[in-house]
């Protein structure tokens, strides 16, 4: 790679890392990470860490990209009118998010069901909605409620149910250090809250292999 080409690539990378609307010359996430590396006793200029601040910034922007997404845009264009009033279930949706208390990952599976009332949403949109809310700093309880609330608001079904099962690195890597602990949260709206039989059907389906 020529010196000119290398300089051009560096310029492109710097532009990618710049937050839209950030004044030129202001401190970046990568700059802050270099300071943090020094504070913990590391040398940010050694070979293994030289590009770590930039990599960290790219990763953090990706992991929090849900802030730049809107549920209306995620769900629009995939609403269909149908005569179907039985449960629609999308289960085992992989979830990766970050705990807002320690900024450590939590991950697991999300199960989403709803009972349509004249409208259904494209099946692929449900995992996209889950990802949108997961790619923010979160607590699992709020994430569960946000997914259920967005579906309820958008298509006004007869009921919505969401269950998330996740492992939290803030419990596994630090604190109580319980390697096999798992948090389970649920949100039940409409028919799933009011009708025990409907709720049990949903729970039995997500337990089935």
Structural account:
The chain has helices spanning 3-17, 29-39, 52-63, 71-75, 125-134, 140-155, 169-172, 191-194, 196-207; strands at residues 79-81, 88-99, 105-115, 119-121, 137-138, 159-168, 183-190. It is α+β, with helices and mostly antiparallel strands. The radius of gyration is 21 Å and the shape is elongated. The termini are far apart. The mean pLDDT is 88.
Helix content: 40-55%
Order of strands, main sheet, comes to 5-2-3-6-7
Question: Which fold name corresponds to the CATH topology of the largest domain?
Answer: GTP Cyclohydrolase I, domain 2
The CATH class of the largest domain: Alpha Beta
**Into which percentage range does the β-strand content fall?**
15-25%
Brief overview:
The chain is α+β, with helices and mostly antiparallel strands.
What key phrases describe this protein's structure?
single chain, 209 residues, alpha+beta, GTP Cyclohydrolase I, Chain A, domain 1, GTP Cyclohydrolase I, domain 2, 2 domains, 5-stranded mixed beta sheet, two-stranded antiparallel ribbon, 7 strands, elongated
List the helices and strands and how they pair.
Layout: H1 3-17, H2 29-39, H3 52-63, H4 71-75, E1 79-81, E2 88-99, E3 105-115, E4 119-121, H5 125-134, E5 137-138, H6 140-155, E6 159-168, H7 169-172, E7 183-190, H8 191-194, H9 196-207
Parallel strand pairs: 2-5
Antiparallel strand pairs: 1-4, 2-3, 3-6, 6-7
Helix pairs in contact: 2-3, 5-6
